[in-house]
Amino acid sequence: MASSIVMGVTALVFCTWAVSLAGLASVQDKCESGWSDALGLAINGYSTGLACYSFFRYYWFIVSLEVCLIFGLAGVLASGAYAKFRNSFLGLFCVATLLYIQMSDTSLTTDTLTADAAQSQLKNRVRTWIAGSIMTATVNCFLIIALGMTESDAAPAAHHAAEEKANAV
Questions:
Q1: Which residue in 51, 94, 161, 164 is a FRET match for 104, CA 20 to 30 A apart?
Q2: pLDDT digit string, tens, across residues 22-58
């Protein structure tokens, strides 16, 4: 029962991860050579003096870590080894959630500094990155709750429902 809930929430995490991936990739696509110094000095979470291909490297690490965790959890669920690896994934998704919260903060601050830009396309790309970051962090929280549930936690509800059906007859 609990593993089917985890699989459903994992699929939802994958969907929100795809939005954060698209947002990050689209913002990096519009990167200009002066961003590293202009944004790096004004926003926590960015480094200065970097070329565009390495300016977002920390956030690419976060996005890559998340997809590895998603596919790893899906593989564990498919192989039937969920009980053995549940606590490991619980801890790893806690770390990934905190990283996504930090990425949300950086993308929100980026939006405030680029909101007045004449390029509305850049503004929309940053907002896609914001949406993906916030949604992934939020759904990761739901996944942490689902991973924390054990079969014994889910069983009383199922047992109670079966009892109600038996009493109804």
A1: 51
A2: 999 999 998 888 777 778 777 877 878 888 778 889 9
Cα separation, 61 vs 45, in Å, equals: 13
Q: Which amino acid is at 11?
A: A
CA distance linking residue 62 with residue 84, whole number of Å: 25
- Judged on CB neighbours under 10 Å (0-12, 13-18, 19+), 139 is buried
Structure tokens at 81: 């080894």
Which structure tokens are listed for 75?
Answer: 């593989």
The pair phi, psi for residue 91, each rounded to 5°, is -65, -45
Whole-number Å distance between alpha carbons of 83 and 145 = 15
Give me the count of residues in the chain.
Answer: 169
Reduced to 3 states (helix: H, G, I; strand: E, B; else coil), residue 1 is coil
pLDDT digits (tens, 9 = 90+) for 84-137: 999 999 999 999 999 999 999 999 988 887 777 656 788 889 999 999 999 999
CA 60 to chain centre: 12
CA distance 39 to 7: 38
Full-model pTM: 0.83
